[in-house]
Amino acid sequence: MSTELANDLLLRTLMREPVPRTPVWIMRQAGRYLPEYRATRAQAGDFMSLCRNPELACEVTMQPLRRYALDAAILFSDILTVPDAMGLGLYFETGEGPKFERPVQTADAVRALKVPDVEKELGYVFEAVRTIRRELNGKVPLIGFAGSPFTVGTYMVEGGSSREFPTIRALAQESPEVLDHLMSLIAETTVEYLNAQIEAGAQAVQIFDTWGSALEPDDFRRFSLASMQRIVDGLIREKDGRKVPVILFTKGAGPLLEDLADTGCDALGVDWTTELADARRYVSDKVALQGNLNPATLRESPETIRAGVASTLASYGKGPGHVFNLGHGITPDIDPENLGVLVDAVHELSPAYHD
Ligand code: 1CP
After folding, report:
1. Residues in Cβ contact with 192 at an 8 Å cutoff, skipping those fewer than 6 apart
2. Whose CA is nearest to atom 42 of ligand 1?
């Protein structure tokens, strides 16, 4: 496979190297706000059939790149393919979130879990990565991803989406060593899963820790941070002579960004509840930062979107190490034209922040 990359702004920025402008990609850039995504999902039948079909997963990965001048592609898959591979039986009911046929709700159920054979159970993901790399042909880098063990664990224990996480919180209080064991199992599986994505061609990886900050800081450190640390320690960090940067995104991390920066990751995602200027102080410029425009801004006028881009760039300030993104995924109700306004504004306004 060719390793030449026409646009390596993202990879250079994640390593805090100087670049002429700020790179931009968008969490959930392939998804329901795009009519062509909805058409391809209908063609596949349902969401999981789309994930399991490498040609169609490649097609939806490419769709946002055809519309917008984005600096990266992100693998089309889901964080919940990992527990599905562990035997929990993932399914989606139309109009509802993810669910598991066999949630893991007792100490015995946790003890019965095993690290799956990822090549056998998740081979369709690695095939999608190879297909996307061929199709990208060096245009922009491909980001692979997984969920954090705690975030994935919330779905495994609660059996689906949750707001308050009653079952996993009770486990943390009453049987913390059982939750430690669950975190280790998911972390070990995730190391194998992400390393196989990297072997297949992923050029950077992101760990989505959407729910870690629901924990009190000490529990966050014990369950979410420690298990992400195990993943960072186990990942392939260089391939074909090039670094493979690791991005950790704990939504709502706030001052915990300081702890996250000490894991040895290369970059941290930041949501809109922390100013990038403050985030930069928390991490003392040890890592690159990614974010953090409020996704709700995309519901506003073009002028307001441009102003939001301008203030996000200004908050990070001058110098390398900023990847433009939203502070969380783009939502299904957004008008696709508005994302074009955002991407164009980053191209136009960001060169002033680089020498
Ligand atoms: O009906 C559909 O089309 C399903 C919607 C959908 C999509 C488009 C789901 C179900 N997953 C995805 C793709 C996806 N999920 C991607 C790749 C696409 C891209 O980024 O372009 C990624 C990175 C994810 C990650 C993901 N899945 C997270 C972490 C990021 C985040 O947004 O917080 C989480 C928590 C999930 C679980 C999940 N899968 C799907 C949904 C609707 C959810 C969220 C459920 C909930 O809110 O609890």
Report:
1. 115, 118
2. 97
